[in-house]
Amino acid sequence: QDVGHLWYYADDVTFDSQTGRFTLNGNVKESQPLTSAMNDKWTCGSENYGKTYCSTIYHITSMEGNTIKTASSRTYQIANAIGSEVGLYKTTDNDGDTYFYRGDVKNNNVKFAGFYWKIIRINGDGSIRLIYNGDHANATGQETSINGTSYAYSYFDSDPTYVGYMYGENFSQEPIKTEENTYTNIQPLLNYYFAKSYTTDANTRTFKLTNADYSGKFSEYGSQGKLAQGYKYTCMAQSADSTCYILFEITKVNNIASIQAYYYSYPSVSYEATREDTGSSNAKTQLENWYTNTFSKKVENGKTVTDYINTDGTFCNDRSLSTQEGNGNGFSIAPPIFYGALERNVNKRAASLVCPNIADLFSAKGSEGKGNKKLENPIGLITVDEVALAGGLFDTKNEAFYLYTGDIHFWTMTPSKFDDRVFESIFMIQRDGVINTVYSPKNIEGLRAVINLKKEVLLNGGNGTMDDPYTVKLSN
Fold first, then answer.
1. Can you tell me the distance from the alpha carbon of 129 to that of 110, in angstroms, rounded to the nearest whole number?
2. Distance between CA atoms of 385 and 350, rounded to whole angstroms?
C-alpha cells in the first residue's frame, strides 16, 4: 500500500446522480499513513487520496495492521456518459433514482406467472420493470414475443395522429392543402393512376380520383407529358377506383422517382387533439387482450398474479416534438415531423428515462400515480431510451446485450418521425440489435410485453441466470 498520502475515510457515503460523484460523509477523518481504524470505512482510495469525493468509491472490508487487506469498489456513471460496460447503472426517471441493466448481463432473469422475463430496471418508485422473454428458458426469436406471435403496431400510418399508443380522432371537417413538398417514395416501374379532378368524403376523410383513365409506369409519366395534359392528381395507387387518405397534386416531375406536389388530407385539428387518447393502437389492444385472457388468469404462490403488479406503473409513449428548426407541428402531414426521442437518442446520444410530458406517461385507470390513467390494464412496451441504455445501437449490430433475440424484430413504444415519404415511423429493434428509426407501423413485428412488479415484491430464490432465474414472493 502507498502510505505516503493523506487518506480521507468515513462511516458513510452519498452519491450525486447529476455529477456521478460519491462524497464521504458521516464522521469524515483523515490519516497519514494508513491506519487500522479504516476497517469497515469508505474511502476514495487510490483515486485522489486526499479528496472527500470521487467517481469510484472503496469499502474497506478488512485491515492487517496499516495495510488494506480486502476492499470492494463501486463505480457509477451518469446514463448519458456510459460506454458498453456490462452492469447496473443509475440515472433518474419521473419518480426518482432508477437502476437499469446494460450489456450482456446474465443475472437479470425472472420466472413469474409461468413465463420468463428479464429485468429492465428498478424504477424510481422501487417497483421492478420486466420485459417478456418467452414461456420457457433460453427462448429466442419469435418465442420472445407474446404467444410466439407478432402483431402490427397500428393499422394506419398516413397521419401523425396515429404515432400514439393511444390517439385522439378530432379531425378537420375540410381537406387541408399543405405547402409544396418534395415526394420521393415513388416506385418508377409501378403503374400509377392519375386524374384531372377528384371527389372528397368528409365522413371517411378520403379522396377519390374522378375518371382516372391513365395508367402507366411512373417512369413514363413525365416523358408522355401527362402533367401538361392536366393529369395532376393521384392517390399513388395501382387501381383506378382507389380511395386514399392523402391526395397528391403534382406540380413538377423532378425525375423518375421524385416529384414536387401539394398534399391534401383531413388532419387533426391540433397537436393536443392527437393526444386526447380516445382510440387504441393495435399494439395496445393485443397486449391488453393477452393480459386479460392469458396473464391475469395465472396463479403465483396461491395468489393471482395481478396481486404482484404495480397498478400505478407507467409506460412512456413520448410524443414530444424535436426542437430542431423547421420541424412540423405534430398534427399536419407536412413539413416532416421529428419527435423528441429521435433528437435525444440519435442526434445527441443522450437517452433519458424521464418522460417529458405527463400526457404521454400512460398508466392504468384508477391508478394513483403520476400517469394519465388511460389504460385498461397496466401493461405496455419498452421505450427506445430503455433499449439504448440497455445497449442497443442505432448504426451498429449488437448481439451482446440482453435484449438481443436472434431472429425477431420487435416494437418499442416510441415514435420516431413522420417524414416526407408521408408515413409515420416507430422505433423498432431489429433481430441484429440495431435500433431502426424509420419503420412503418403497418409492418407486423413482435410485441414483448412490459410490466411493473410492486416494490413489495421480493426476488426469492435462484441466481438470476436463465437456467436458474429469480422467483418472486410478496413481502407481506
1. 11
2. 9
Q: Tell me the C-alpha distance between 129 and 27, whole Å.
A: 37
**CA-closest candidate to residue 426, choices 442, 410, 408, 439:** 439
- Judged by average pLDDT, the poorest of 315-329, 351-365, 370-384, 386-400 is 386-400
- Categorize the per-residue pLDDT at 181 as very low, low, confident or very high, splitting at 50, 70 and 90: very high
Of residues 147 and 266, the one with the higher pLDDT is: 266
Lookup result for grid cell 446474465: 106
How high is the pLDDT of residue 28? 87
Retrieve residue 92's grid coordinates.
Answer: 433518474
Residue 31: pLDDT band with limits 50, 70, 90: confident
The set of residues, in sequence order, having a beta carbon less than 8 Å from that of 319 and lying 6+ positions away, is: 163, 164, 274, 275, 330, 339, 357, 359, 360, 415
State whether the Cα torsion 226-228-231-234 is positive or negative: positive
- pLDDT greater at residue 270 or residue 141: 270
329-339: b (≥16 Cβ within 10 Å) or e: ebbbbbbbbbb
- In angstroms, the CA 476 to CA 469 distance is 22
pLDDT 10s digits, 75-118? 654 434 444 578 899 999 999 999 999 999 999 999 999 999 99
Contacts of 129 (CB under 8 A, 6+ apart): 119, 120, 121, 122, 123, 313, 450, 451, 452, 453
Report the amino acid identity of residue 33. P
Rg (CA), the chain: 27
Label residue 50 by pLDDT band (50, 70, 90): low
Q: What is the mean pLDDT of residues 444-451?
A: 93
The number of beta carbons lying within 10 Å of the beta carbon of residue 325 is: 5
What's the predicted TM-score (pTM) here? 0.80
Q: Which three cell numbers stand for residue 139?
A: 427462448
Cell numbers at residue 3, please?
Answer: 502510505
C-alpha cell, 171: 379531425
**What are the angstrom distances between the C-alpha of 77 and each of 90, 100, 126, 401?**
7, 11, 20, 18
Sign of the torsion angle spanned by Cα atoms 110, 112, 118, 122:
negative
